[in-house]
Inverse folding.
């Protein structure tokens, strides 16, 4: 008998569809309370760091250059106090097959799908990950379907996302494009069920294991180039996979004193599921609209438990404005001769500002660059913004930025100032959401310990947060 | 008439506005959830007909035929004068001046 394919029926079968489509039973990692065994989930991939690196090496992924951005470092020093202004390095992830670090996440997932005998792979993504999965599927001879949120209700596509669709098709994938809304997940599940393909989720342990090589390479390359570990690594943050995998890789390489900073573009005030505001965004990823909800509630992704858990790994969370990222993207091209981005340059804009807090001999690494192309470049992004009624001007981004209304380009580089977000507020929010979701009235010792690790704090912090928020009463 | 075997783009409505039950902002709630994909047309048809296509992943999908030989028109955008101003400023700050 054919299964009912209406919204409610398909969503109701979500757990079974996921189990089939990942070959993992997430119940194996649950405690029945708040805690779950994250490290066991990560081990369930069955691949060591070394094996992941080998898989990636076979598919034109990894071992990307670490480039010192000497002119941008010199520019930052012009605005720092004497003796300050760290050396800025960029991990040139655009050199991966498909043009972004997402190839690392896709390589492991797609190779695993092939090994398990799946005929194809599916991913729900409007970002670089689609092209990454499509590229890897092409290499492995698997079918590929990418499900994208691409258009507003008038059928106007965000140029950056349209370009990503083109790239997926170039690698032989089918691209299913949708208008704005979280029910994309319904279409995604329905196609997964019909095809029996592998869910190459961004948030599976295979995806995150794939990013660990990035952190490991950063450690090794820093030791080789400058003779020490990086003092700070800045990661553009959206779903949290970049900072999670990079930090894990750095830890595996023995970098214990590296400060991990997450950076997102501040899009406060824009609703991510709003049809009218969809094309008022001038960047489609690396922003707070993804970064904050995924940090505080990692498990609202397309798998039962996300392997990307950014608050476990970040020491600071900073935000920058759209105009600052656009300006730095142009600076990278004009002063370093490297045309990349734009969204991947979120970390670069933050690093330019953070470098000024550190001494000259300190080393700050931005963990990625991404390819650039038609639609996915500051000129079409700014032109599109202007067509959509967004005001573009020079000024003080920190004081004047208003997402969806204007883009304020810094009137000179001294106006690029990363702002610290209140990370403890995010930590408390995670604690609240985790306890509410579990629906428990008391916590076990394992739960307290779990929440401390989840938030990179200690049991005292967790207990105080619970008191303060009036939870468990 | 569009011939069987041509590469086409189809459109469909996944959920009508009143069938959408997810937590949505008001403006999105008023819109249908629409879908587009591409594939080889499975039978001769006219634009506007409901047709079946075979997609790049060898899947059969139904929808309204809207475009034949679809192609991309996204570009590097129109001129943005601020960009050349940024270039001039960066060169001046880093390499110019009297210090």
């Amino acid at each position: 008998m054919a299964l009912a394919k209406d919204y409610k029926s398909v969503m109701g079968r979500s757990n079974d569809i996921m189990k089939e489509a990942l070959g993992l039973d997430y119940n194996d990692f649950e405690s029945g309370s708040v805690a779950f065994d994250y490290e066991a989930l990560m081990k369930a991939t069955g691949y060591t760091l070394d094996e992941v690196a080998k898989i990636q090496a076979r598919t034109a992924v990894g071992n990307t250059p670490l480039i010192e951005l000497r002119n941008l470092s010199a520019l930052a020093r012009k605005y720092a106090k004497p003796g300050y202004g760290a050396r800025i390095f960029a991990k040139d992830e655009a050199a991966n097959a498909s043009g972004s670090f997402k190839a690392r996440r896709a390589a492991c997932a797609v190779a695993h799908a092939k090994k398990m005998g799946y005929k194809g792979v599916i991913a729900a993504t409007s970002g670089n990950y689609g092209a990454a999965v499509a590229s890897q599927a092409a290499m492995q001879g698997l079918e590929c379907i990418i499900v994208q949120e691409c258009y507003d209700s008038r059928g106007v596509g965000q140029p950056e996302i349209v370009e990503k669709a083109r790239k997926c098709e170039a690698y032989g994938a089918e691209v299913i494009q949708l208008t704005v809304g979280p029910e994309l997940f319904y279409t995604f599940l329905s196609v997964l069920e019909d095809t029996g393909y592998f869910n190459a989720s961004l948030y599976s342990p295979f995806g995150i294991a794939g990013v660990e090589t990035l952190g490991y390479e950063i450690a090794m390359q820093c030791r080789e180039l400058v003779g020490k570990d990086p003092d700070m690594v800045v990661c553009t943050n959206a779903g949290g996979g970049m900072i999670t995998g990079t930090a894990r890789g750095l830890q595996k390489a023995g970098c214990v004193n590296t400060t991990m900073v997450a950076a997102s573009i501040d899009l406060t005030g824009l609703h991510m599921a709003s049809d009218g505001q969809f094309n008022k965004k001038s960047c489609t990823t690396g922003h707070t609209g993804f970064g904050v909800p995924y940090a505080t509630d990692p498990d609202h992704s397309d798998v039962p438990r996300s392997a990307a858990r950014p608050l476990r790994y970040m020491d600071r969370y900073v935000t920058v404005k759209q105009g600052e990222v656009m300006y730095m993207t142009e600076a990278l091209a004009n002063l370093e001769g490297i045309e990349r981005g734009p969204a991947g340059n979120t970390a670069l804009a933050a690093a330019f500002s953070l470098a000024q807090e550190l001494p000259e001999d300190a080393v700050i690494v931005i963990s990625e660059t991404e390819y650039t192309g038609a639609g996915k470049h500051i000129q079409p992004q700014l032109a599109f913004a202007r067509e959509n009624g967004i005001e573009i001007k020079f000024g003080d981004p920190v004081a004047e930025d208003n997402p969806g209304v204007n883009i304020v380009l810094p009137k000179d580089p001294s106006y690029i100032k990363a702002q610290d977000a209140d990370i403890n507020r995010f930590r408390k929010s995670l604690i609240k959401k985790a306890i509410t979701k579990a629906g428990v009235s008391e916590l076990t010792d394992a739960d307290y310990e779990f929440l401390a690790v989840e938030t990179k704090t200690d049991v005292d912090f967790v207990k105080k947060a619970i008191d303060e928020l009036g939870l468990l009463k | 008439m569009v011939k069987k075997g041509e590469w086409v783009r189809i459109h469909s409505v996944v959920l009508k506005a009143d069938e959408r039950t997810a937590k949505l902002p008001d403006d999105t709630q008023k819109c249908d959830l629409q879908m587009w994909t591409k594939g080889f047309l499975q039978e001769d048809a006219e634009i506007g007909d409901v047709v079946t296509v075979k997609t790049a992943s060898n899947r059969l999908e139904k929808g309204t035929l809207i475009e034949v030989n679809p192609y991309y028109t996204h570009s590097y955008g129109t001129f943005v004068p601020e960009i050349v101003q940024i270039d001039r400023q960066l060169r001046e700050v880093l390499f110019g001046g009297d210090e």
Observations:
- Chain B has a mean pLDDT of 94.
- Chain B has one domain: 1-71.
- Chain B is about 20% helix and 30% strand.
- Strands of chain B lie at 7-15, 33-41, 50-54, 60-68.
